[in-house]
């Protein structure tokens, strides 16, 4: 019997993950992550939430994007997600037309990058550079 992936369902859970400010952007999706609260982390699993804004398209397009993301997560995350973490997967406009294999690659890349410690000193990328500094 296949056990389903635990889901984030309440708005407050999505906001808590977003407040952690740990995200990775790929062409097909955006991945946000944070550690679960202590009580949930003790269980050792992970939870995932899905979202698609109106910029993705009408309701039919948003639902299709979420279905595609659920399929990608079901394939990738059971082996690669970190226990005791909550994730939010956000659809982008490209989620709809991107080949499934590339969406899988996008999620794998995002998971690898989000787990790696930051090497730029946490400056936030280009926003942390001083004016006129070389890239």
Q: How many helices in DSSP terms?
A: 4
Q: Flag low-confidence runs.
A: none
The radius of gyration is 16 Å
What would the CATH topology be? Ribosomal Protein S5, domain 2
Strand order, largest beta sheet: 1-4-5-3-2
Could you report the average pLDDT, rounded to the nearest whole number?
84
Biggest sheet details: 5 strands, mixed
Q: Which class best fits the helix and strand makeup? A: alpha/beta
Q: Please give the alpha-carbon distance between the first and last residues.
A: 51 Å
Q: Which of globular, elongated, flat, extended, rod-shaped describes the shape?
A: globular
Annotation, overall tally of beta strands: 5
Percent of residues in helical segments?
A: 25-40%
**What is the CATH architecture term?**
2-Layer Sandwich
The multimeric state of the shown protein is single chain
Strand content: 15-25%
What top-tier CATH class fits best?
Alpha Beta
Order of helices and strands: EHEEHEHEH
Q: What's the number of domains? A: 1
Structure description:
The termini are far apart. This protein has 135 residues and is α/β, with parallel strands linked by helices. Helix 3 links the parallel strand 4 and strand 5. It contains 4 helices and 5 strands. The chain has a 5-stranded mixed sheet with strand order 1-4-5-3-2, sandwiched between helices. The protein has a single domain, classed as Ribosomal Protein S5, domain 2, CATH 3.30.230.10. The chain has helices at 11-19, 38-41, 59-80, 100-115; strands at residues 6-7, 23-25, 29-35, 47-51, 85-91.
